[in-house]
């Protein structure tokens, strides 16, 4: 039986939290979506939906619409992210056993365009007041001791056969290349292990992918790999999120049920009838610029924008998104030339796409309906999607779980922000974290260079965990 949501949204004094939303990241079980000190954080849980399979987005969409159509909403702020909100994380693959989920929190703090607000969400008959909402928020903040927001490891199997926990075969115990130390010299050092494939085996998989591309069966393939970090002193999820939010302000820092990270890629952002996306394809490790004489940006423009391989990979990603978005749009525009996105660890070729949504079957499509059409994009899967997806399952030897799947939030009015869960990890236990990174493979790809790129992409999570590589 569906419970009726009752919500109250009131303005919040932003001056009391000069650090913005990162100052609320004090619990390991916090729900989080933040960029440049703005966004949403959530505490507690009043409702949850889970699904698997190819219809997971549409099933979640139906559930959410049923939840909000009957909701009793009092909103004194009225902007995107106010009223009832759900945070979500979805599996990358339609065949994954990982449970995709929407979570409705009890308390939501939002910051947007210099405005701050507080929403309390209930499913019982208790009175909703501003004083009660503030007291509930204080309760969550003043009692940060909470079990980590980790999902049990068995929900994130590391191979297609369904074995959870440790990685496959003997490679599970193989140390990753390089010396791995915890920055905390007084404590037991953190360790890093290869995941489902050793580095050598993963490079062999990349070479196999290039060979398939040369046959003409596909244009692009995205191959990912995983590593397992063990932190004996315990994983501090809240500290990881704070580190990511501060270091990667141009990314969207996310935390949902033990899935944590900071993605530079926006799958779809919907505000009213306007949809926007940020597409990335083409990567350069900023450490490669050491010793170059010119300005760093000049170097990136020369190597990325001047590379036929990188431009080709980027064009495939843009074409994939715009083709899938077109049926839902009455007008669309994208950058004619990609720009260089500068992050602390890498440079990317990036393009922003903006579309005005049209009515489909009498109504404007919801966030989740758009995601159902857009995911997976060429940026995280390849093209053609069906061929690339089958080859990923054959070559990666792991279930990606929520990695490279949509992660974000939506509200009752149809607004929402959904990134692609990149530069992230899954907290599998109080002391273990599984990190993921992937690369776009085209005909001109070289396995050694792609392996180095994965380490550049692991760097945000390794740094936030206090692990040097």
Structure notes:
With 469 residues, this protein is α+β, with helices and mostly antiparallel strands. It folds into two domains: 137 residues, no CATH class; 304 residues, Anthranilate synthase (4-Layer Sandwich), CATH 3.60.120. The chain has nine helices and 25 strands. The strands form three sheets. Strands 1, 2, 3, 5, 8, 9, 11, 12, 13, 14, 20, 23 and 24 form a 13-stranded mixed beta sheet that branches. Strands 4, 6, 7, 15, 16, 17, 18, 19, 21 and 22 form a ten-stranded antiparallel beta sheet that branches. Strands 10-25 form a two-stranded antiparallel sheet. Helix 1 packs antiparallel against helix 7, helix 3 crosses helix 9 and helix 4 packs across helix 9.
SSE topology sketch:
Layout: E1 6-11, E2 31-35, E3 38-43, E4 47-51, H1 56-69, E5 72-75, E6 85-89, E7 100-104, E8 107-112, E9 115-122, H2 130-142, E10 181-182, E11 191-194, H3 199-214, E12 220-230, H4 237-247, E13 252-256, E14 259-263, E15 266-271, E16 274-285, H5 296-305, H6 308-325, E17 329-334, E18 339-342, E19 346-357, H7 367-374, E20 382-383, H8 385-396, E21 406-411, E22 416-420, E23 424-429, E24 432-441, H9 447-464, E25 467-468
Parallel strand pairs: 1-5
Antiparallel strand pairs: 1-9, 2-3, 2-13, 3-8, 4-7, 6-7, 6-21, 8-9, 10-25, 11-12, 12-20, 12-24, 13-14, 14-23, 15-16, 15-22, 16-19, 17-19, 18-19, 21-22, 23-24
Helix pairs in contact: 1-7, 3-9, 4-9
């Amino acid at each position: 039986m569906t419970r009726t949501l009752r919500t109250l949204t009131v303005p919040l004094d932003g001056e009391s939290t000069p650090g913005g939303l990162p100052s609320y990241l004090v619990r390991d079980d916090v729900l989080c979506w933040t960029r440049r000190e703005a966004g949403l954080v959530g505490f507690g849980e009043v409702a949850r939906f889970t699904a698997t399979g190819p219809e997971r987005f549409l099933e979640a969409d139906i559930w959410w619409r049923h939840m909000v159509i009957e909701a009793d909403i009092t909103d004194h702020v009225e902007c995107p992210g106010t009223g009832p909100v759900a945070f979500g994380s979805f599996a990358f693959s339609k065949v994954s056993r990982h449970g995709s989920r929407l979570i409705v929190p009890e308390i939501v703090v939002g910051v947007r365009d210099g405005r701050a607000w507080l929403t309390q969400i209930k499913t019982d008959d208790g009175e909703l007041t501003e004083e009660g909402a503030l007291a509930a928020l204080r309760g969550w903040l003043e009692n940060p001791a909470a079990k980590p927001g980790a999902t049990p490891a068995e929900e994130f199997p590391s191979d297609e056969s369904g074995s959870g926990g440790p990685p496959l075969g003997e490679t599970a115990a193989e140390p990753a290349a390089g010396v791995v130390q915890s920055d905390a010299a007084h404590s037991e050092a953190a360790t890093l292990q290869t995941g489902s494939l050793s580095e050598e085996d993963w490079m062999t998989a990349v070479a196999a992918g290039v060979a398939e591309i040369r046959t003409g069966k596909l244009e692009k393939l995205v191959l990912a790999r995983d590593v397992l970090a063990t932190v004996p002193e315990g994983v501090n999820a809240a500290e990881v999120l704070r580190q990511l939010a501060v270091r990667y302000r141009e990314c969207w820092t996310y935390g949902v049920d033990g899935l944590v990270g900071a993605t530079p890629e926006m799958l779809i952002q919907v505000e009213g009838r306007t949809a926007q996306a940020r597409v990335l394809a083409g990567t350069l490790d900023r450490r490669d610029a050491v010793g170059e004489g010119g300005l760093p940006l000049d170097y990136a423009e020369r190597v990325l924008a001047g590379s036929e391989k990188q431009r080709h990979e980027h064009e495939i990603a843009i074409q994939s998104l715009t083709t899938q978005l077109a049926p839902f749009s009455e007008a669309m525009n994208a950058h004619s030339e990609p720009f260089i996105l500068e992050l602390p660890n890498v440079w990317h070729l990036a393009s922003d796409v903006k579309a005005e949504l049209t009515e489909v079957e009498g109504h404007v499509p919801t966030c989740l309906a758009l995601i159902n059409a857009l995911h997976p994009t060429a940026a995280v899967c390849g093209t053609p999607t069906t061929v690339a997806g089958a080859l990923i399952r054959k070559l990666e030897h792991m279930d990606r779980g929520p990695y490279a799947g949509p992660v974000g939030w939506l509200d009752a009015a149809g607004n929402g922000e959904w990134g692609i869960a990149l530069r992230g990890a899954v907290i599998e236990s109080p002391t273990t974290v599984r990190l993921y990174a992937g690369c776009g493979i085209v005909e001109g790809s070289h396995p050694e260079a792609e392996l180095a790129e994965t380490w550049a992409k692991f760097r945000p999570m390794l740094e936030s965990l206090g692990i040097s590589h």
